[in-house]
């Protein structure tokens, strides 16, 4: 049976699009995107999902406490029998209830080499700090911000001429490949979490099983 992915997004949706393309091209085998869900009506990613025939839903968070809102999102994901939740530019902190409902089944992508530069404007933070390298991180989501066990990271050098925009653009290109690879590893079950470490098994060992 195909593994079912739920994508949560709040904006442009380029990571969602990259995942959708990877699923369609078989780079994430035996999987499908069961739903793309947004807290924002105007999220471009939701339009993109509809354009490629993927079920898309907006659940507005207006006037709702975090827990009440997350209850609705959890219900929508459970109704679609989602195996893995991928946060793709989803700009909301998840409640502990959400994390517990999908324990070790939520991934996030963040545009820095965590634990450096968590939170907003990670690319600007890296630049202003004077870092020579930044990149992106795919990690499991726990109760803390940008903090769970790291699945994969990719490194991007920072050039003297970079602005937050040029750096963000180069990191974004890495994000698309890194997210695909991480989702593939997780859906194939090719990993083990030991404390904070995510140990990844080589593909061949898995095939021999
Ligand atoms: C991406 O750069 C992603 O890493 C970042 O938001 C952007 C979303 O772009 N996420 C975070 O900063 C989360 N802490 P997208 O909508 O085109 O995928």
Low-confidence blocks of residues = none
Bound molecules: glycinamide ribonucleotide
User: Quick one: CATH class of the largest domain?
Assistant: Alpha Beta
Percentage of residues in DSSP E strands:
15-25%
Which whole number gives the mean pLDDT? 96
Structural class: alpha/beta
The number of domains is 2
Overview of the structural elements:
The chain has 209 residues and is α/β, with parallel strands linked by helices. It has 2 domains: 1-103, Rossmann fold (3-Layer(aba) Sandwich), CATH 3.40.50.170; 108-209, Formyl transferase, N-terminal domain (Rossmann fold), CATH 3.40.50.170. It is 37% helix and 24% strand. The chain has a 7-stranded mixed beta sheet. The protein has a two-stranded antiparallel sheet with strand order 8-9. Strand 2 (31-38), helix 2 and strand 3 (56-58) form a beta-alpha-beta unit. The longest helix is centred in the last third of the chain and has 24 residues, at 164-187. Residues 9, 11-15, 45, 88-89, 109-111, 122, 146, 172, 175 line the site of glycinamide ribonucleotide.
Provide keyphrases for this structure.
two-stranded antiparallel sheet, Rossmann fold, 2 domains, 7 helices, seven-stranded mixed sheet, 209 residues, alpha/beta, single chain, 9 strands
Please give a quick description of this structure:
With 209 residues, the chain is an alpha/beta fold. 37% of the residues lie in helices and 24% in strands.
Give the topology, please:
Elements: E1 3-9, H1 14-24, E2 31-38, H2 44-51, E3 56-58, H3 66-79, E4 84-87, H4 96-101, E5 106-110, H5 122-129, E6 133-140, E7 150-157, H6 164-187, E8 191-194, E9 197-200, H7 203-208
Parallel strand pairs: 1-2, 1-4, 2-3, 4-5
Antiparallel strand pairs: 5-6, 6-7, 8-9
The chain binds glycinamide ribonucleotide.
């Amino acid at each position: 049976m195909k593994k079912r992915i739920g994508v949560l997004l709040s904006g442009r949706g380029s990571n969602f699009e990259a995942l959708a393309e990877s699923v369609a091209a078989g780079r994430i085998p035996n999987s499908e995107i069961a739903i793309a869900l947004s807290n924002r009506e105007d999220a471009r990613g939701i339009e993109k999902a509809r354009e490629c025939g993927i079920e898309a839903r907006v659940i507005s968070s207006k006037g709702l406490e975090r827990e009440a809102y997350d209850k609705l999102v959890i219900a929508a994901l459970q109704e679609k029998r989602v195996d893995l939740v991928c946060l793709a530019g989803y700009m909301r902190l998840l409640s502990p209830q959400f994390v517990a409902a999908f324990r070790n089944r939520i991934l996030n992508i963040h545009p820095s080499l965590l634990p450096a530069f968590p939170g907003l404007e990670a690319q600007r933070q890296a630049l202003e700090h004077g870092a020579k390298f930044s990149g992106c991180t795919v990690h499991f989501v726990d109760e803390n911000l940008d903090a769970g066990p790291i699945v994969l990271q990719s490194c991007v050098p920072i050039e003297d001429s970079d602005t937050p925009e040029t750096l963000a653009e180069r990191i974004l290109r890495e994000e698309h490949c890194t997210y695909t690879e991480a989702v593939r590893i997780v859906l194939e079950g090719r990993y083990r979490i030991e404390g904070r470490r995510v140990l990844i098994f080589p593909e061949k060992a898995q095939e021999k099983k």
